[in-house]
Amino acid sequence: MPLIPEEPQIHESAQGPRATPATGRTAPNPRPVPGPRPGPRPVPGPRAVPGPRSSATPRPGHPGRGPARPAPPERSQAPAERPAAVPQETPAEPQLQLIPASADGALDAADEAVDLLLDSGRAPGDILVLTTGEQHPWAAHELSFGENSYWEQHDTGEDVFFADASALDRAKARPVVVVALNGGDADSAASVLPAARKQAGALLVVCGDPQRVNSVLGAGV
């Protein structure tokens, strides 16, 4: 039996040289090599900034309605403030102070009250002392020189002034009034104390029977 020669095996890894185009075939044309890239595009220059509009040039109004009218000014929504009412001041009543004393000791109690007031810093011209019974020794002494000189010292207002309660209408008001209930009839306190409270600007001191004083001025004394 005749032997068939074996065909040589070609492995994929053993590739031969590339075949050259046969004679008579046209080789493909090579692709054109790109030339140099064109330069950068020119940057446009800055645009001209328009200037401000002339205020003299009027804006056109609405057609058929004439020139435009200016807008009305805005009204404030806040109501107008009204001035606050000034409260009327009511005169404050003076402070009341009661010094218990009998009719015989009321004058001495009044002198002690005056000394305490002066020691506390009260000016002598701030104090007026009234008596319902016997005159204070100072008042009796000054009246011996005449009423004119006596009341001149009152009008000057430089010292403590002692007067009879019956002369309360002539005596001027002072910051402190001291009343000595050292006598008089039963109605003397009822007439003197309310008037003395009006004459006292800051303090009313009453030297006398507490029950009698409270019945006239009230239990708050």
Strand content: 5-15%
- Helix share of residues? 10-25%
How many strands, what sense, and barrel or not for the largest sheet? 5 strands, parallel
- Give the SSE order as H and E letters: EHEHHEEHEH
What's the gyration radius in Å?
Answer: 61 Å
Number of helices: 5
Shape from CA axes?
globular
- Spatial gap, N to C terminus: 166 Å
Low-confidence stretches: 10-17, 19-36, 52-66
Total number of beta strands: 5
Structural class: alpha/beta
Strand order of the largest sheet: 1-5-4-2-3
Please, what is the average pLDDT? 75
Q: Describe it for me?
A:
The chain is α/β, with parallel strands linked by helices and 221 residues long. The protein has five helices and five strands. The protein has helices at 106-119, 137-143, 147-156, 188-199, 210-217; strands at 95-100, 127-131, 161-164, 174-180, 200-208. Strand 4, helix 4 (188-199) and strand 5 (200-208) form a beta-alpha-beta unit. Helix 4 crosses helix 5 (210-217). Mean pLDDT is 75; it is low at 10-17, 19-36 and 52-66.
Summarize the entry for a quick read.
The protein is of the alpha/beta class and 221 residues long.
Layout: helices, strands, pairs:
Elements: E1 95-100, H1 106-119, E2 127-131, H2 137-143, H3 147-156, E3 161-164, E4 174-180, H4 188-199, E5 200-208, H5 210-217
Parallel strand pairs: 1-5, 2-3, 2-4, 4-5
Helix pairs in contact: 4-5
Overview features:
single chain; 221 residues; alpha/beta; five-stranded parallel beta sheet; 5 helices
